[in-house]
Amino acid sequence: MPDEKPLVGVVMGSTSDADVMKGCGDILRELGIPYEMKVLSAHRTPDQTRDYAMSATGRGIEVIIAGAGWAAHLAGFIAANTILPVIGIPIDSSPLKGNDALLSTVQMPPGIPVATVAVGSGGAKNAAVLAAQILALKYKPISEKLQGYRRALTQKAMEMADAWTEAD
Length: 168
Ligand code: RP5
Known about the structure:
The chain is α/β, with parallel strands linked by helices. It has one domain (8-142): Rossmann fold. The chain is built from six helices and five strands. It has helices at 18-30, 46-56, 74-79, 99-106, 121-136, 140-163, and strands at residues 8-12, 35-39, 63-69, 86-91, 115-116. A five-stranded parallel beta sheet has the order 2-1-3-4-5. Helix 1 (18-30) packs parallel to helix 5 (121-136) and helix 5 (121-136) packs across helix 6. The termini are far apart. The model has no long low-confidence stretch (mean pLDDT 97). Residues 13-14, 16-17, 41, 68-70, 91, 93 line the site of 5-O-phosphono-beta-D-ribofuranose.
């Protein structure tokens, strides 16, 4: 996989977002999807973020995932500068526990959507799965990996339910 060109661009607003974003990379790797991960900020490095968004298609990126906290404009700013699908993860890094990031990520004006997933680490994982679902329309191996991922989830849930007793 390291030799393959990335299909997914994963960006986060700060190095402090890395713990939350880790689950995103873990699932992309599990599904065999080549990706790149970068730290870019709509507020602190706007020129570099714009360049990244505008060059993504030319570099072979097909989906962008952007995670940010506080007044999170990263996903929306990237969406404004590319027509690639953009998935936004509101990160719960502020005193408002991600409520601020959720609204600033999800409430995009008509015409410039950001597909916003759940707040925090669960959302980071779901962003990877959603990116895979988009890519699965075109790449059969990714579709097969996703189907296996779903089967494993179901299997695990059934095993846990079978092992559970009220005494637990
Ligand atoms: C946002 O501000 C980042 O996405 C991060 O969640 C938050 C805080 O960043 P740091 O001050 O920790 O660098 O832009």
